[in-house]
Design goal:
Rossmann fold, 19 helices, alpha/beta, 5-stranded mixed β-sheet, 4-stranded parallel β-sheet, binds flavin mononucleotide, de novo design (two linked rop proteins)
């Protein structure tokens, strides 16, 4: 199976970021058709029937999420989650730089479907370039009458605002994002209430990932059946896979969901330097590692990656070759999550700190077998006790590497024992 560009259309159409080029290729026609000829419920029904699932991590059905918004409560909001802070994820970055109008049109269609008149695009704090591109795109689309007040002579208004994020991983979590958007500290909120009921400024809000929304214009144009015919029954459509790490040609590859692992790796030239594969992290730093043996012939969709013991998440494959020390991998992810823990709840704040200390000792050759056991103890005190999923995300690499690659840990602990032995000899 090869590449198929539904959202990465700019790879086939030069200068698609330019409004004129986007419009010449059918851009904003679906938004115009929707507001002038369709009821909001019709747009929602098409997206629901398409089976589109969120591309931000959890794979939640998009149309279903939209339908949770109460009909008669106003104002409502669409928030585009363009925070993209998971290590190993860089698809939304490419989409907003190279195909910004498809994201904007998708967000405006979502707004029309739920009865919102404002869209906020929350951009990762480091995305200065993306923000400039998005702001210019919104301004041009508005000046040309594709966005703004009383669209196409109807009484429907859609304004789009681009906002900078706070530069923190946790601000990708939808409720922390909403707090940050309101100018508060970016820390998660207790759920329920869910954003669909009480989100931005306590109003009904849908938060969707950038890639999710970029799928909406082609779905409205070509219909639910077209979309369902791509991918698998439960995971329809294409997905942008971000490939990084020990791979010959790192980058974004858009393929139908269900594409076998080997086909995706072949597009990227395989494992670098002709080496063998040890494992991958399929959803960036927050996902359990999946060993090479479980990847052979694996169709890449949410169900089957979960059945293989991990999560597809936002499909950010960090490829690890046979030379990779898994203690080093878990040390790196642990340091990341300790740094990014927002501090709101103590199991995550303290637990990630203690995990970091243990890994520091192990990679410095000063760890012991007792340290290896301590990892499991600390993990048990974090698991299921945190305010949001970040605490559990921090456990993915330590737990899975310890379970699957115990020999790397034994080697790390043995190194310390040898050093101690020499010191006492
Ligand atoms: C700690 C944490 C970080 C997250 N970071 C992101 C992110 O950077 N981008 C994103 O789209 N979703 C992120 N999510 C998921 C969002 O909370 C939310 O599920 C998503 O934006 C929903 O959009 P979707 O239904 O279109 O996937 C994160 C979740 C957690 C718990």
């Amino acid at each position: 199976m090869g590449e198929m560009h539904v959202v990465l259309r700019h790879r086939d159409i030069p200068d698609l970021h330019d409004l004129d080029v986007y419009v010449a290729h059918g851009g904003y026609a679906q938004l115009k058709r929707a507001v002038t000829t369709m009821q909001p419920a019709e747009v929602l029904d098409i997206v629901k029937a398409s089976g589109l699932r969120g591309r931000g991590g959890a794979g939640f059905p998009t149309g279903l999420k939209w339908s949770f918004c109460p009909r008669d409560v106003y104002p409502k909001y669409i928030v585009v989650n363009n925070d993209e802070s998971e290590p190993g994820t860089f698809k939304d970055h490419e989409l907003t730089l190279r195909n910004p109008h498809q994201v904007i049109e998708g967000a405006a269609l979502a707004a029309y479907a739920i009865g919102a008149q404002a869209v906020y695009i929350y951009c990762r704090g480091e995305f200065w370039q993306e923000m400039k591109v998005l702001e210019a795109a919104v301004a041009r689309a508005r000046a040309a009458g594709w966005l703004g007040q009383r669209l196409h002579g109807t009484d429907y208004t859609c304004e789009v605002y681009v906002t900078p994020g706070a530069g923190a991983y946790i601000c990708g979590e939808e409720t922390a994002l909403l707090n940050s958007l309101e100018g508060e500290l970016g820390q998660p909120r207790l759920k329920p209430p869910f954003p669909a009921v009480a989100g931005l400024y306590a109003r009904p809000t849908v938060v969707n990932n950038t890639e999710t929304l970029a799928n909406v214009p082609p779905i409205v144009e070509k219909g639910a059946a077209w979309f369902k015919a791509i991918g698998t029954e439960k995971s329809p459509g294409t997905k942008v896979f971000c490939l990084s790490g020990h791979v010959e040609r790192p980058g974004n590859y858009e393929v139908p969901l269900g594409t076998p692992f080997e086909d995706l790796m072949a597009l990227a030239g395989g494992v670098w330097k002709g080496r063998a594969l040890k494992a991958i992290m399929p959803a960036g730093a927050s996902s359990p590692v999946t060993p090479a043996a479980k990847l052979a012939g694996l169709p890449l969709d949410w169900e089957r990656v979960a059945a293989a013991g991990s999560t597809l998440g936002s499909a950010s494959f960090i490829v690890l070759d046979e030379t990779t020390d898994m203690v080093w991998v878990a040390d790196k992810t642990t340091r990341f999550f300790q740094h990014e823990s927002c501090g709101k709840c103590s199991p995550c704040r303290e637990g990630t700190y203690w995990l970091k200390q243990v890994y520091r000792r192990l990679v410095a050759g000063q760890g012991t077998a007792a340290d290896v056991d301590l990892i499991g103890d600390i993990a048990r005190q974090i698991d299921g006790k945190c305010f949001c999923p970040l605490g559990e995300f921090a456990l993915s690499a330590p737990r899975s590497t310890l379970q699957l690659f115990r020999e790397d840990y034994d080697r790390a602990a043995a190194g310390a024992a040898a050093q101690n032995g020499q010191a006492h000899a």
